[in-house]
Amino acid sequence: MSPIPKTAPFAEEEIDLLNRVVGTASPVQRAWLAGFLAGLDASGATVMPHPATPARPAEPLTIVYASESGNSEKLAGDLAKTARKNGLRPTVIDMADLELSALASAKRLVVIAATWGEGEPPARAMRAYNELMSGGAPRLEGVEFGVLALGDTAYAEFCAIGRTIDERLAALGGKRVVDRVDCDLDFAEPAARWIGDAVKVLTPPNAGGRVIEVDFGAKPAALPSTDVVEAEIIEHVDLNSSRSDKETIHLALSFEGGAPAYEPGDSLDLYAENDPAYVDELLKIAGLAGDEKLRADFIKSRDVTTLSLKTVETYAASTGHQYVKALLADGQAKEWIAGRQLIDLIATFPIALDAEKLRALTRPLAPRAYSIASSRRDVGDEAHLLISAVRYDSHGRARKGVASNYVAERLKRGQHVRVKLKPNGHFALPAPDKDIIMVGPGTGVAPFRAFVQERRATKAPGRSWLFFGDRTFTHDFLYQLDWQDALKDGALTRMDVAFSRDTPEKVYVQHKLWQRRTDLIQWLDGGAYFYVCGDAKAMAKDVRAALVRAYADVKALSPEAAEQAVATLEREKRYLQDTY
Length: 580
Ligand SMILES: Cc1cc2nc3c(=O)[nH]c(=O)nc-3n(C[C@H](O)[C@H](O)[C@H](O)COP(=O)(O)OP(=O)(O)OC[C@H]3O[C@@H](n4cnc5c(N)ncnc54)[C@H](O)[C@@H]3O)c2cc1C
Ligand SMILES: Cc1cc2nc3c(=O)[nH]c(=O)nc-3n(C[C@H](O)[C@H](O)[C@H](O)COP(=O)(O)O)c2cc1C
Known about the structure:
Bound molecules: flavin-adenine dinucleotide, flavin mononucleotide
Low-confidence stretches: 209-220
Distance between the termini: 35 Å
Helix content: 25-40%
Number of helices: 23
Strand order of the largest sheet: 11-8-15-6-7-12
Strand content: 15-25%
């Protein structure tokens, strides 16, 4: 859509030129431009007229991103900026909104895709992804393309979605002009390099034309800061009872100089440290127990637990270990890795190692995301998190999640922790008068505490309905008192709970949705928004399936029509997920 109408007081070619810049600019860029021009007028400065050089029509570039937590989306924006500076005319499309005809009509196409779940597309990209993989996908002859894949080597299906899309675009007749790069969690550098190369290759020799340079370096005031900041822990409370087999910490953080400008639905990235006991054991097994420098580095900044195929390959190459080589050659390494960590590799296949070789087996320690469980309008300069300690046994060893146990076992009130705001505009509250249905079992309930606080603070007239579940009512009812208060004061209209271990037959949130299906569909027909947060592996899929069944039953629809009803909610962005 062109934002500058033909009626604007400019010549037609000037309107075209303006639309080429403003039409593809993000809201932030448009806001910057508006402010800049207003400032120019206010200062009385005049722009010197200069002889016009005929502008060549800029060549189009279609950029599609499939993103869940915003990394691919951010890179798509970076790519658009670079492309625009190179004289291209980028159009950025969230795969959630992609119509496949846009691919067929693209001359040049870049896809930046993250992989989620166990080798799945980001939730909101699922529909377009399935269409692309289906027999109905359009032919792409004449489309030049490149794919950048984002992922995490810790997952067996590393960058699977980027890889599959890359193969699919070629199979549909597209011409791969930039080779795919698969990025791990520390993607910043390889992604920036890939973007630079891709723009070079995709820019036709005649593209230069008249390039309008806009300096996007200065951060617009409208964007919240996503710098790493220090926070003080002012509350550290286990919300499970001492008789629960879970430990879920309510962590209240206080920020000197103001909390990051977060909104309900956003998360914080938390920078954790490794368990010194684990690091000591690892160094002992590797024969490097006395190396204090390596120990400090490992505790603070290296991922010393993840075991990936890449780690095993590096180990085989750097040590020449016969059995590890055989494991790889037999194609058994992927299976062997499952449920194991770096410490298992070295304990099972010991060999003389020096500090450098051991360090080369690790990658930088990545922060972990936690949904913010508070609203600034209620808690001021605080941010609350709800963190469940991950503990399990595998292959005869007790395992502990790095960040969650750093919080649960080693952080105390009065200490400090480093965090960074991770905005998520795709999981935000709707207009205050809209009804919301929130499905958040376990720690999935965290953002809904923020939603409810926000709706109370803003006196939102829309109704709010929460579905919560956990193991037992007595020991695992997270934020029970908050919900009771909210029901009393009206911030929460309705609440349904499912405690799976209180009854002989396990009851989960999806069962509660089914029980309440008549009211549920009535709310949705009235325009309610449906939010799901928490476990991606089973819960999110079961909840969606329950909603499809609810539509089929309440409205007497065929399974296909009921599926369409939920797909329509997704397209309308009234079915929103933040699952992990
Ligand atoms: C947007 C977003 C929001 C999130 N919000 C929250 C939140 O509000 N609260 C919260 O608690 N978490 C939340 N998480 C999850 C959180 O980021 C971490 O993934 C979680 O705390 C585990 O991190 P960790 O460092 O403790 O574990 P890690 O050291 O990362 O270990 C986790 C890994 O251990 C393995 N593992 C775990 N359990 C088992 C098992 N039973 N058997 C075998 N292997 C296993 C898996 O490989 C898993 O990936 C969120 C995640 C995202 C992406
Ligand atoms: C719950 C979860 C599941 C993931 N599953 C995979 C996976 O199967 N394969 C992979 O390569 N990366 C996986 N990742 C890593 C993401 O792809 C990676 O964090 C990426 O940078 C996210 O990009 P986005 O912010 O654009 O969604 C997973 C991450 C999370 C949190």
